[in-house]
Backbone:
């Protein structure tokens, strides 16, 4: 549970840095830290989040969902219950053929 809280806090910090960079870009203030500083922090903490998630998965602290690739395929067998009819481009109905031996 603590790993998930850490990941969520890191993601919130990433969003905070992203919006600080946006504010600097929109306002055009050149004083203080440049916009690239906050964008660099965002990238750095994104890498940290990925490393934490992969390490937590490998160490068994969090459990991943099952992959759909490894799922067994369902096989559906359909029996043909309809009788085949001759198809043509003619829209006129053909008279039905009757078997005289019935």
Residues:
């Amino acid at each position: 549970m603590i790993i998930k809280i850490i990941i969520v806090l890191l993601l919130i910090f990433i969003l905070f840095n992203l919006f600080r960079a946006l504010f600097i870009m929109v306002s055009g203030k050149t004083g203080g830290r440049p916009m690239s500083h906050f964008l660099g922090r965002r990238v750095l903490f994104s890498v940290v989040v990925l490393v934490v998630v992969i390490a937590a998965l490998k160490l068994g602290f969090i459990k991943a969902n099952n992959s759909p690739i490894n799922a067994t395929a369902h096989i559906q067998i359909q029996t043909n219950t309809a009788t085949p009819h001759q198809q043509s481009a003619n829209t006129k109905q053909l008279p039905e053929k009757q078997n005289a031996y019935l």
Observations:
- DSSP finds two helices and no strands in the chain.
- The helical segments are 2-27, 35-59.
- The two ends are 76 Å apart (CA to CA).
